[in-house]
Amino acid sequence: MPANRSAFLRRGIAAVAALPLLALAACGYGSDAKDDNANEKVAAGSEKIDGLDTVKIGYFGNLTHATALVGREQGIFQKALGATKASYATFNAGPSEIEALNAGSIDIGWIGPSPAINGFTKSAGKSLRIIGGSASGGVKLVVNPDKVKSLKDVKGKKIATPQLGNTQDVAFLNWIADQGWKVDAQSGKGDVTVVRSDNKVTPDAFKAGSIDGAWVPEPTASKLVAEGGKVLLDEASLWPDKKFVITNIIVSQKFLKEHPKVVEAVLKGSVDSNKWINANPVAAKAAANKQLEADSGKALPTEVLDPAWTSIQFINDPLASTLNAEAEHAVKAGLLEKPDLTGIYDLSILNKVLKAEGESTVDDAGLGVS
After folding, report:
1. How far is residue 241's CA from residue 250's CA, in Å, rounded to a whole number?
2. 70 in Cβ contact with 287 (< 8 Å)
3. What separation in angstroms does the CA of 146 have from each of 139, 160, 193?
4. Three-state SS for 231?
5. DSSP string, 285-343
6. Distances in Å between the alpha carbon of 308 and those of 197, 226, 240?
7. Residue 29 contacts residue 239 (beta carbons within 8 Å)
């Protein structure tokens, strides 16, 4: 039986929407990475699209955002944009990226499903649209094999997730419920103790023995394996066709209305980036790691990079039915007020690009703009 992921905790939504996201407030609107890549330079003789000087693009320093990482490092976005300069901001969490989008600090962003749904619903459907997909998979339950030998052994253990109500947190809560176990979503206490821990510190907590495992995205999952952990469950195994959305592309509705040709150029860059990634997996992996190093000052070691990379699929399809399933399961579990997600997608420009590239178009599962 598929254990589809949920979105957010009903009681936590108001706090998340109202505050600069508690501990995430320190992240601000993200930070501009160093602009020293020759591939990012505007080509001589190129022209601005719609006369626009700059488009502001946001993404995370995660391998699940490798479309953005590779598209930037290889200069694919800049090539598609001509003389309209691509500027970039990196983020540590989805809520801070949504805040930046709402404030106009970015125009387009790569982001996970839960903050995309949250941003859409809390603005009554007025803040953003999902305009494309980017990646599927890359989420695992990794445990201490000395303490947890089977899935049933998870009961009674301390398992970390990245953040209260984030995509992986609710996925784990949903999986727990499917086992017939009880956990208070807010406190994380119950048959399993859910420990909310930033991905940056989770490997240290695992190494110190303060947690017994974690349900986390890549590359954190592979970092835990490098510390002696064992993959007990790959979330992809819980989904039909082993595919579920992990990264979407969003745009502010204002920017989409005012600059559709620029949005089209960015989406062409995304499609071209995914095509290059899938045709050149070794070079693409190196390019993503190079951009991660440029953004954070630290590249991933081979023992982390290699297994993390192979668990992610880079696709243009936003897998809209899986996003819808997340919301439906959240409502069923009592974790989310029933949302109206009609209009969260506008895939018309993406499908235009895909047709021009001779590729199959994608579906919005009935959640597109009318």
Report:
1. 24
2. yes
3. 22, 17, 18
4. strand
5. HHHHHHHHHHHHS-PPPHHHHHHHHHTEEE-S---HHHHHHHHHHHHHTTSSPPP--TT
6. 20, 11, 21
7. no
**Tokens linked to 22:** 């508690």
Alpha-helical regions (H) of 179-219: 202-208
Nearest residue to 69 via CA among 369, 324, 314, 363 = 314
> How many alpha carbons lie under 13 Å from residue 44 in its C-beta half-sphere?
0
Contacts of 221 (CB under 8 A, 6+ apart): 138, 139, 140, 142, 214, 231, 308, 311
Per-residue pLDDT of the chain (370 residues; tens, 9 = 90+): 444 444 333 333 333 333 333 333 333 344 444 445 667 777 777 899 999 999 999 999 889 999 999 999 999 999 999 999 999 999 988 889 999 999 999 999 999 988 898 899 999 999 999 999 999 999 999 999 999 999 999 999 999 999 887 788 888 988 999 999 999 988 999 999 999 999 889 999 999 999 999 999 999 999 999 999 999 999 999 998 999 999 999 999 999 999 999 999 999 999 999 999 999 999 999 999 999 999 999 999 999 999 999 999 999 999 999 998 887 766 665 667 888 999 999 999 999 999 999 999 999 999 999 7
Residue keyed to tokens 């002696």: 228
233 - beta bridge partners?
Answer: 141
Q: Decide: 246 and 322 in contact? Cβ < 8 Å.
A: no
Rounded Cα distance between 191 and 256, Å, is 46
The 10 Å CB-count burial string (b at 16+, else e) for 137-160 is: bbbbbbbbeeebeeeeebeebbbb
Residues in the chain, total: 370
Provide the b/e sequence for 303-332 (b: ≥16 CB within 10 Å).
ebbebbbebbbbbbbbbbbbbbbbbbbbbe
Question: CA 179 from chain center: how many Å?
Answer: 26
* Euclidean distance between CA atoms 258 and 103, whole angstroms: 16
What the block records as the tokens of 2 is: 């598929």
Does residue 34 sit in helix, strand or coil?
coil
